[in-house]
Amino acid sequence: MSEVPDSEDTVGGIAFRGRSILRTLGAAALVLLLVLLGVAIGTHFGPHVTAVEQRVVEPVRLAAYSRNDLQAMPDIVSQDCSAVALLRGSAGTPAAPPPPKPKRQKRRSGKAPVPTPPIAIGFFVSPDGYLLTSAAALPKGPAEAVLSDGRTFPATNVGVDPLSGLALMKIEANDMTALQFADDPFPRIGQTTLVLAPAPSSGCTARSMFIGGDFVGDGEGLRSYLLAQGALDPGWSGAPVLDLRGQVVGVAGLSPPGDPASALSSLLPGTTASHVVDGLLRESSPPATGYGFEAEDIGQTLAGRLGADRGRGAVVSLVAEGSVAEKAGLKAGDIIVGVGGQPVSGASELARLLDDQRSAVVLQVQRRGTAQTVNLPDVK
Fold first, then answer.
1. Which end of the chain, N or C, is surrounded by fewer C-beta atoms within 10 Å?
2. Which residues touch 285 (CB under 8 Å, ≥6 apart)?
3. Which of these, 238, 239, 214, 227, lies nearest to 161 by C-alpha position?
């Protein structure tokens, strides 16, 4: 005879199983709720957490994997040392360029000190032996170039640009280490630079400087220039000023007339130097116009300093003292945007338009954001 389950036990089991199902469903609902809440929190705060992580972690990661710029200086000296040379009189013995300036010594007798022969520093701008240097520091008469490895070559004067004070020399040698001008060779204020010069016997010596100002901040003048913090001895005249990639951004020892900054060294910007080099290599003559000024294309940094648009106009870099251009009121930093009503897009077009003129010409100029006109008389 089969047993029939007790009705109370049957009802209790059903109730127990019902409570278990309810607890399972409740736990599942709670888990689902937590998952949804987590997704919502992640969506809201995730980008912020990622941004914070990038701000905190990224600089550390970059610092760990990038080189200190100052640590690159020894490599730059080693890499570019063979590109610099001393230029001296061919019959003389060079005295070492004096970086830093030696202390004044007392005279031991009444004899006059022996004069130091003129010495300039040059650097190669092409592998086939063209050297750029300071014209004023060159010795009179025949000259020779003493390379950083001690070799000596006769040096011929190819051309001089009186406005910039640069001279182009040539030695009969090939496969020389040539320095390159930077892509935007007008350095920014605060930028660290390295000045490179040959050592007294062999090898090189160097000075680190940073750009402290320029002609834009100092006001209007007859030439563009940079002011580097830290004075250089005159023996550094013609030395290349390099950025931390080893490219030329200036030339030392070419001070503008009446420079009032005694604690600063005046440097010719690389923009002007590269423009002069192009002209001397191409024509062996200065690229100035007959009106007595030089103009060049506007680089990115200089455009920002002058508040100008790149690709529109040519910036005046040098104006000869006493020239027609100076008497007409043209100044360094003026941006020539038109000649006789015809627009100017760059230095080449400006040169072409001025060559086509046979009479007095009117220049449309932007000066510190203000439109002006400059009337140049006929010089033909």
1. N
2. 159, 279
3. 238
